[in-house]
Amino acid sequence: MIRQIDVPNLIGLSQGEALDLLTSRGLIMEVLGTVPVDPETGLHDKIAGQAPAAGETLPEGSTVQVQIGFGPPPETTTTTTTAAP
Predict the structure, then answer these.
(1) Which has more pLDDT, 74 or 42?
(2) CATH code for position 18
(3) H-helix or E-strand containing 14?
(4) In this structure, is residue 83 part of a structural domain?
(5) Cα(48)–Cα(32) distance, rounded to whole angstroms?
(6) Is the Cβ–Cβ distance between 35 and 65 less than 8 Å?
């Protein structure tokens, strides 16, 4: 009898982290491509979409499809201070 596996939440994980998590549960990852994300979400270069959704159940050996977020990375600011003479 084939084991049923709960699909984990992959949103926000790196591609490597998602692959490791799925592999450890007996599931396969398929990257479908990229999806545009708002820089404020923090999902640039992270898993931004998955199917099936977290919490669904699949037979062991099934495939979970993911999309990687792309877009401009979040803006960073640099503050420079100078000591008074």
Answers:
(1) 42
(2) 3.30.10.20
(3) none
(4) no
(5) 11
(6) no
**Quick check: is 31 in a domain?**
yes
Return d(Cα 34, Cα 45) in angstroms, integer: 9
Q: What is the pTM of this model?
A: 0.81
Where does residue 10 rank: exposed (0-12), middle (13-18), buried (19+ CB within 10 A)?
A: buried
What is the extent of the structural domain holding 8?
A: 4-70
Coil, helix or strand at residue 31: strand
Contacts of 85 (CB under 8 A, 6+ apart): none
How many domains does the chain fold into? 1
pLDDT-derived band at 2, boundaries 50, 70, 90? confident
For residue range 16-38, what is the model confidence (pLDDT) as tens digits? Answer: 999 999 999 999 999 999 999 99
